[in-house]
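Journal club prep, notes for RB
We'll compare a predicted complex against what the paper describes. Inputs for the pyridoxal-5'-phosphate case:
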Amino acid sequence: MSSDTENGLAGCPKSNDSQAYDAGTADSPSAQPQLAFETRAVHAGYNPYEHNGSVSIPIYQSAAFAMHDAVRGDGLSSGEIEGFSYSRCANPTVDALERRLADLEGGVSAVALASGMAAVSFALLCAAEGGGRLIAPKDLYGASVDAMESFFPQFGIHTDFVEDINDIAEVESKITPDTRAVFAESVANPSTNITDIKALADMLHRHGVALIVDNTVPTPYLFRPIEFGADVVVHSTTKGISGHGDALGGVVVDSGNFDWTNGRFPQFTQKELVVSDERKGIWKSFAEAYGNAAFAGRVRIKYLHNLGAVMSPTNAYLQLIGLETLPQRFRRETDTALEIARHLETVPHVTQVNYSGLDSSADKPLADRYFPHGIGPVLSFRLEGDESHINRVVNAVRVFSYVPNIGDTHSLIVNPARITHREVPGDYRRAAGVDDHLLRLSIGLEKPSDLIADLDRVIAGAY
Ligand code: PLP
């Protein structure tokens, strides 16, 4: 590669917001933002006429792209010309997924990554880098807790954990001059507790603190946090977005609404060579170079570019295919999850069912307010007895698969205390309701009666 690559710019487009590439034509539904979610899940962010008319998005399985001539190579590297040259920073198949997800979440730009944890980590580090602090609840996905509780402190980034993310006064009391962002899951995994995004965002914005939301469990079909004030949305696209359990992935979506120049975030206002033109003596910050897409720009140009964690073109293709049926899958899976949650409330030996869509749930008012079409396919429940009963259940299932994943078309069961939340300290696990009595389900597309029969059989057989 050319020396521009060593400089760190080749292949890194300035943004993937819809204006940058002007993908739409009169014939392309990708240019019509007023279309329904179902339609945009199939068409947004992609124009077949720019790809030889290919209706299925091509897999651009190429590490690098010919830059044509020195002038274009220089323009691509400086960001003055939009285009592709090196797939670590941008690839046309991955770009289509990024545009589609930015569109569906209502953001201005998105960066796809190799996994959900890359998306969580890059977003949190990008907000808090340089000694900043984060605030988060304890009932997060296990690896997110581990990252913030024991790993990020090694890089000088500390998190103030709160017992209840919806206790706005408690969250506000933790804000210090170093606080950069609050991180929460829209629907927590596995408790299904719901975050009151609007109340949180309104308070945080009075302090110039950003709200980063992990929207993995409901997906943008059921909930779009940016509409309620979230500044950045992250996903494990491995889950409902992909939907078939066939590819890992993650995405960071920039709302474009947050002012990263408000004084709390020096990383966005300092001049940096990677977005400047030293030879011409033009020096820029990320805020100057990327405008309201500065967060996505920094995730791409600093984090993706320097730390890797690239989504492969083939995985982007698989996720685009899965995304096309997200509304249909999630409607069905969410309906079945509610049916199963209601049924479990009547099953002997079940002592508690966690599903915020249930009338008995303390979070039902929040579910009604934010999730008119349901909270998604994940639920959890507690069994009486001890860990041996949990083990007998996971050992005996036939329709459910014993798998540490969610959002698949296959229904999945797992014991979080030993698997997905194993690395979480005991008091955090208890705050998340995770102990040796808990099982998590992720409901797929099987017939509900077969799923219910499988659960009834294994629960009865465990005692
Ligand atoms: N966020 C949530 C809510 C998750 O459930 C998961 C994984 O289960 C992740 C992030 C991490 O995603 P990945 O496994 O794709 O790295």
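Talking point for the session: The chain has two domains: 18-322, 327-462.
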